[in-house]
Amino acid sequence: MSAKPKYRRILLKLSGEGLMGDRQFGLDPETVERICGEIKTVYDRGVQVCLVIGAGNIFRGVSEAAAGTERTSADYMGMLATVMNSLAVQSVLENMGVQTRVQSAIPMATVCEPYIRRRAVRHMEKGRLVIFAAGTGNPFFTTDTAAALRAVEMNCDALLKGTQVGGVYDSDPKTNKNAKRFEKLSYQDVLAQNLRVMDTSAIALARENEVPILVFSIHNPGGLADVVFGGGTFTIIN
Known about the structure:
The protein is an alpha/beta fold. It has helices spanning 29-44, 56-66, 71-95, 117-125, 143-153, 187-192, 200-208, 223-228; strands spanning 9-14, 48-53, 100-104, 113-114, 129-133, 158-163, 168-169, 181-182, 184-185, 213-217, 235-237. It has one domain: Acetylglutamate kinase-like (Carbamate kinase), CATH 3.40.1160. It has a 9-stranded mixed beta sheet with strand order 4-3-5-2-1-6-10-11-9, sandwiched between helices. A two-stranded antiparallel ribbon has the order 7-8. The longest helix has 25 residues, at 71-95. It is globular and about 45 Å long. The mean pLDDT is 93.
């Protein structure tokens, strides 16, 4: 692992499920603390970081209630859940001494800043970490697409997707011991083989703007720093 980061500015996409630990839904304080510690390690070494967090951990808990809900309303419920996750992660990061701002695509001035691209860039230039909440602000778009969009808007050197496994595999490594991990894939490979890394609109956005996507396990201690500094176990899509 080199002393200099391979990527100066990154967007880290975390799934809501990644914050649950062993729980059925909600946040596991120990897991959140550990992941924030990983982020702080990278931030402390001078890397500019922004985050997009999913909402699977909260929305799973209300999904039964949302089952009869019209799709647009259900999507807005999911966006609001990402704001809750973002505020929780902000709180933990600030307790660790990381200056953090939350910007929401759905304005809610009492709770956080509205998303303003130039302001977000300025925050990062001043050494603050920015968390983008509420997806793209539009229904029918996932937080994966929001992550790709923000990574492009922020001129990030890479989009890192922290998952439950150490990269992209040809089958589910949790059920198949012989699943093969890809070292490298092209955007076209992902689309053609229908590898469910991110949804197609996120992959297409990254491809059009030449933002590499690195998929790694957020549960490997030190894994985030390894990837940012050019080592570790991951799959790169470029």
